Write the structure tokens for this entry.
Amino acid sequence: MGGKILIDVQRLLEVEGELNLKKRELHEAQGEEERIRGVREEWRRLERELEIKEHELGLFEEQIGGSNASRVSLTWKRFVGCEGFTLSLSSGCSRC
């Protein structure tokens, strides 16, 4: 009977060792999951920031294009002295 108890205690110690090993592996896996989650959140933040910057760039390009076209039109009108012209590269203002 004493030998059976000793075998049971030995088996219990083995199982506790295996349990502790699995708990340690689980803890490491949870740490890795947390690290990956942080990287994924940073990726999403940077992706949103890039989308916003690309949108801002598009707005600036539209604004610059519009203001340049307006400036060229106003300068041409002052230079030629006519309103409502159409400019062709070969003949100049069609109204003059």
Notes: Residues 2-80 form the longest helix (79 residues).
